[in-house]
Structure formats: structure tokens, C-alpha cells
Amino acid sequence: MTDVVLDAAAKKTLLRKIPHGVFICGVAEGEEVNGFTASWVTQGSFEPPLVVMAVRSDSTSNGMIQRSGRFCLNVLAADQKDLAAVFFKPQKGVGGRFDAAPFSLGPLGLPVLDDALGAVECTLVGQVAHGDHTVFVGEVKTATLHRDAPALELSATGWQYGG
Ligand SMILES: Cc1cc2nc3c(=O)[nH]c(=O)nc-3n(C[C@H](O)[C@H](O)[C@H](O)COP(=O)(O)O)c2cc1C
Fold first, then answer.
1. Which atom of ligand 1 is nearest to the CA of 62?
2. Residue 65 phi/psi, 5° resolution?
3. Ranges for the Flavin reductase like domain (predicted)?
4. Number of C-alpha atoms within 13 angstroms, CB side, residue 81?
5. Is residue 36 part of a domain?
6. Owning domain of residue 97
7. Is residue 15 domain-resident?
8. Environment class of residue 44 by beta-carbon count within 10 Å: exposed (0-12), middle (13-18) or buried (19+)?
9. Ligand 1, closest atom to CA 89?
10. What whole-number distance in Å separates Cα of residue 159 and Cα of residue 152?
């Protein structure tokens, strides 16, 4: 494999074709909650129900997921791009982004946004730490559906996260 050369431009173009949603990942540790916008999310198993999410190694939430062993995924409605923008911008303190978004704690103690379509809470069952993101595998333990409507998709936002 020593002669293999990666075409970086082709790699970028092709990886950006992978369709993504836009979610707010919620985390909690002790009395503290935090949330961030995540698009590298997919389902990984029917039974048990698993989700897979890649999280930046240097983010606040990465350590909180590792230490607490849980995370949730809030599913945004198609018209909630503004809310997604709040959750990737710098914040005053850990959890400060929730000042703009009311939430309640779900059965696993994770922040479920009142205005999202709903959320699933997961316990951490596996992870791969290799590269600049950690790939977390979570088993879905609770699901809260507030309303059923089309979800926000990354392609509709004009933002890029990938390549
Ligand atoms: C469109 C978009 C998608 C994103 N998707 C992810 C993602 O899947 N995983 C991730 O770790 N960060 C993702 N980010 C970046 C995080 O939202 C950002 O690093 C955030 O500040 C992390 O918050 P924290 O440090 O409080 O945990 C995305 C950003 C944007 C703009």
C-alpha cells in the first residue's frame, strides 16, 4: 500500500456527497449541561437501536460524553436553522447556548429541547478515537416525540461540514 496516493480534491468532493441531517447533541455531567450542533450522525443498528456520531476530539462535549457515558440527539425541524446556528457558535460558559433554547431533562438526565421535533437519549456502548473526531456509538434508551414534521437537512442550510 506504500504507493497509494490520496487525491485530496476528489476525496473532498466525494465525501461532501454524503447526506447529513443537522442535530443538537445534548450532554450532561454532574449539574452541568452542554449542547452542540452535530451533523455527522447516522443509525447503526435496528436491534438494539444504535446511533453513531463523530465528535471533535478537542470539543468540550467530547470529554463530557466520555466521562458521563451518555448523550442525546435533538432532531430539529426544517425551519430551525437559526437554532442550529446558536449551537455551533462560541458560548459564554458551558451550557450557555441553552439560554436561547428552553429544555427539560429527559429520563437519562440529558437536555431535551422543548422546540425540537423530539430527542433520543443514548448510553455510550463504544467508541473509536482515531483522527480529529471520536466516533461514538450510543444505544437508544429513550425517545421523546414532540411533533412529527420534516427535519432540517444540512444540504438545505448552505453550510458545509465534511470533506
Ligand atoms: C454545520 C455544522 C455541523 C457540525 N457537525 C459537527 C459534528 O458532527 N461533530 C462535531 O464534533 N462538531 C460538529 N460541528 C462543530 C461543533 O458544533 C462546534 O465545534 C461546537 O463549538 C462544539 O461545542 P463544544 O465545544 O461546546 O462541545 C458542526 C458545526 C457546523 C457548523
1. 27
2. -65, -45
3. 15-161
4. 9
5. yes
6. 24-156
7. no
8. middle
9. 21
10. 12
C-alpha 142 to ligand 1 mean position (Å): 23
Q: How far is the CA of 41 from the centre of ligand 1 (A)?
A: 11
pLDDT per position as a tens digit, 22-72: 999 999 999 999 999 999 999 999 999 999 999 999 999 999 999 999 999
Instruction: Let me know: does 130 contact 145? Beta carbons within 8 Å.
Output: no
- Identify the CATH number of the domain in which residue 107 sits: 2.30.110.10
Residue 61 Cβ < 6 Å to ligand 1: yes
Mean pLDDT computed over 105-127: 98
CA of 36 to the centre of ligand 1 (A): 6
Q: How far apart are CA 153 and CA 34, in angstroms?
A: 22
Residue 162 falls inside a structural domain: no
Cis? peptide before 48, omega within 30° of 0:
yes
Give the whole-angstrom CA distance, residue 25 versus residue 71.
7
Residue 94 lies in a domain: yes
Q: Please tell me the total count of domains within the chain.
A: 1
Residue 21, beta-bridge partner list: 153
